[in-house]
Automatic annotation (TrEMBL):
It holds the Pfam family rhaM. SUPFAM superfamilies: Dimeric alpha+beta barrel. This is L-rhamnose mutarotase. InterPro entries: Carb_Metab_Mutarotase, Dimeric_a/b-barrel, Rham/fucose_mutarotase. The lineage of its organism: Bacteria, Pseudomonadati, Bacteroidota, Bacteroidia, Bacteroidales. One of its GO terms (molecular function) is racemase and epimerase activity, acting on carbohydrates and derivatives.
């Protein structure tokens, strides 16, 4: 399972990379994976992500470490989008539910939990 297709967009995009750590419990991690699978994740969550302007969101896992990659239009104010996302239907309910799997407390928003990563290398032009 090497390599993943990347969507192409008609607008310039920015990529954001965030990280989060799960609780070190294999049963919880299995349940977390299942809750994010197609058909199990709440439709309101998917709708909310799209409604605030995020074009793509991927989450990768290795052990307890999660890496989230967001792609959004280059002119999107991601902080404002994440603040808006937290107010949409069922978003905080989802975040509180996911907190049982994550090293995060109830009441934390997505932007509280997911910490930005710093890009330290890329193929320079």
């Amino acid at each position: 399972m090497e390599g993943y297709r990347v969507k192409e967009y008609r607008v310039p995009v920015k990529r954001y990379v965030r990280t989060l750590t799960l609780r070190d419990d294999s049963a919880l991690i299995a349940e977390y994976r299942m809750r994010h699978s197609r058909g199990a994740i709440w439709q309101e969550i998917l709708d909310g992500i799209k409604a605030v302007g995020i074009l793509e969101m991927e989450i990768y896992i290795r052990g307890t470490l999660l890496i989230m990659i967001l792609e959004a239009p280059a002119d999107l104010d991601l902080d404002a989008a994440m603040e808006r996302l937290a107010t949409l239907p069922r978003q905080q309910e989802w975040e509180d539910y996911m907190a049982i799997f994550q090293q995060a407390g109830p009441g934390a928003t997505s932007s509280d939990k997911w910490q930005p990563m710093e890009r330290m290398f890329h193929l320079y032009d």
